[in-house]
Amino acid sequence: MKAGKPDLFIFLVVLFLLTLGVVMVTSASFPRALSATGGADPFSFGKKQLFFTLLSLVIMVFMINFDYHRFRRFTVLFAVLTPVLLVLVLFLGNEINGARRWFDFKIFNFQPSEFAKLALIFVLAHYLTEIGAEVRSFSTGILVPLIYVGLICGLVMMEPDLGTTIVIFVIFLTMLFAAGVRISHLFLVALFVAPVGVYLIIQEPYRLQRLFTFIDPMQDPQGSGWQILQSLMALGSGGIIGLGLGRSRQKFFYLPEPHNDYIFSIIGEELGLLGTMLVLVLFLCLAWRGYKIALATKDHYGSLLAVGITSWLVIQALINIAVVTATIPATGITLPFLSYGGSSLGITMMAVGILLNISRDPRESL
Hints:
The protein has about 375 residues and is mainly alpha-helical. Helix content is about 65%, strand content about 5%. The protein has one domain (about 10-360). It contains 13 helices and three strands, in the order H-H-H-H-E-E-E-H-H-H-H-H-H-H-H-H. Strands 1-2-3 form a three-stranded antiparallel beta sheet. Helix 4 (about 75-90) packs antiparallel against helix 5, helix 6 (about 140-155) runs antiparallel to helix 7 and helix 7 (about 160-180) runs antiparallel to helix 12. This is Probable peptidoglycan glycosyltransferase FtsW.
């Protein structure tokens, strides 16, 4: 059967987010670019982000035309390569701010945990498709994949990276739910994971401090509360329509990582409530269309891939936005399509290309 056209709605949503990302990274990184280049090039980060964006679009177009079923041949490779890379980065990775999450290849940094998200989606989609009705068995449908996901999450936590760990585990839960596991089994998993999460928080003093800071950032406004207070100040000063593009004040070394983890705050400051609401609406539209594709396709493997990819992108965006708005404690996670970064954007756009490829499946009807 001849493949249909990719979903135009998702393509336009992603294209708009990418364009906004290049513009906002250029604006948010302006002071840091001046500092890093000795005043020579205030647009250096923006140029790099534009290059990353164009390259990622090429990757997306390639994936749109690459039959996603072929990835099933590489399931074992993905399953083995993921923990291997996560182990290697702990010993050979570049340490930044006390965390080992990246391989430094000089031209670009590669973050294995970003690859792990997509690889895990491939592995789970294949496994859950293969076991079929056995997914309702606790040992087959829950325990076996939980052991593997637990290994991946454990390695990511050793970097340490709590935010990515949460995203990976939510991907796991949503794919299990979509595959038809018993709800009671999911509740058992939640009961098991909850005390583990509490232990991980109280085990590390800095995580416990983040929790106390979340409850009352004013207890240490010049220290642990500085980051979130500056974020809220940026969002609040933007008002309804914002201060205007390029006119952020918090990006001038008040707000840490304004072009990365906290780019949503700069959007709020420069484009106002209207700008932040637009971003939220775009991600909600992505969720609506992505899950619609998952429901429409008759291919179980493709459906699970669509669920996993959509859940990953939307949940990560919601976590990032929740952090910068002080809705949840800080976790340190990027905003898909908008935050600065090369390898993460490339893998994200690879995932979008696969989602668009699934939408071309002639067995589906949107």
